[in-house]
Amino acid sequence: MNHEKNKYKNPNGKWSKYIRLIKDAVSMYKPCKTEDCFLLQRRADFRLWIDRGGIHESDFQNGIKLGEHYKIINHTLYRKKECIFPSRCKGNEHFILQLINQLPDMEMIINTHDWPKVYKYSALAPVFSFSKQINGSYDILYPAWSFWEGGPAIGPYPTGIGRWDIFTQTLTKEAELWPWEKKLKQGFFRGSRTSNERDPLILLSREQPMLVDAQYTKNQAWKSNEDTLNAPPAAEVTMEDHCRYKYLFNFRGIAASFRFKHLFLCESLVFHVGDEWIEFFYPAMKPWVHYVPVSKSLVEVGDLLQFFNENDHLAKEIANRGQSFVRTYLRMSDVSLYWYNLLKRYAKLSKWKVLKDPSFIEVKL
Ligand code: UDP
Predict the structure, then answer these.
(1) Ligand 1 contact via 162 beta carbon (within 6 Å)
(2) Which of 95, 194, 213, 330 could be disulfide-bonded to 339 (CB atoms 3.0-4.6 Å)?
(3) DSSP state, residue 196
């Protein structure tokens, strides 16, 4: 009880700003009451279509070239033969096929590129994408293929990052090997230069390597050291090995980074840089409650690291809440539930009769 009372005490007032931000955020936070923790994001994505009185076939035609074209007819899944990234299609189809017997007829476009497709200046279309900018893109979010399979592929995971269910187990085990007290008091980041918004952290690490260990790795687009900010590429580090560090950084890449959810399972403190890019579950996680929000300029990073080093109990509590959220609400069954509610709502809003097309292939497990 005394500890509860004292934990936000700040004798010299130096860190009162951060202490207040944490205290206020924690007191305002209301944990999910239903099993469908991500309902608000789905509602936000469909709002536009509800206001327009539903999704019409002409809207659908606007999006026909923006992703993979699927039809569900009489509990059978069909797809236009070509799929630009077969393993991403498989990752998505895994979830749809699991639910197929419960799904009504519908027709949808699933974008398997990293970036969203429907912007303010483009024709409106009901396109499913795994990530988007919170303001500015109208795509309907779906859970990334990589919850099951489809990458991205990197050295330690040559067939692509996937199987969230297995990662949940291995990362939880690794977190047990690296309890909070044993973790290295250092910021950590490994990843490729999919966005130059990551540069300030890499530069900070070069100046103050004891504070932050942040290095660029190669990706498929790598041609020379210029692509790793004029330094040789660093070796890739498994997600499991991230658990050794107390402070883990997340940045957007081309779109939202796939690493965000994994970082929490280490039960380390996640520093989330920028707030524009989201996946379906991001908005249910709250700054200062589950992670530390960081501005894109990263000017405050030095202060934040010092603050959390001096207020270790607050860092640990945020890390605990972040891990607990992901373990409780972002299980494989929650991902399936999101797909189910998403497709049911979409089908209800769709206003045209879906017809068979002989050029489509049947998709089976
Ligand atoms: N990754 C990793 N270890 C590394 C580099 C990358 O596990 O050393 C993972 C990373 O967590 C992410 C994926 O590989 O999920 C792709 O990382 P990258 O930085 O290339 O792209 P991002 O998706 O973050 O834009």
Answers:
(1) no
(2) 95
(3) G
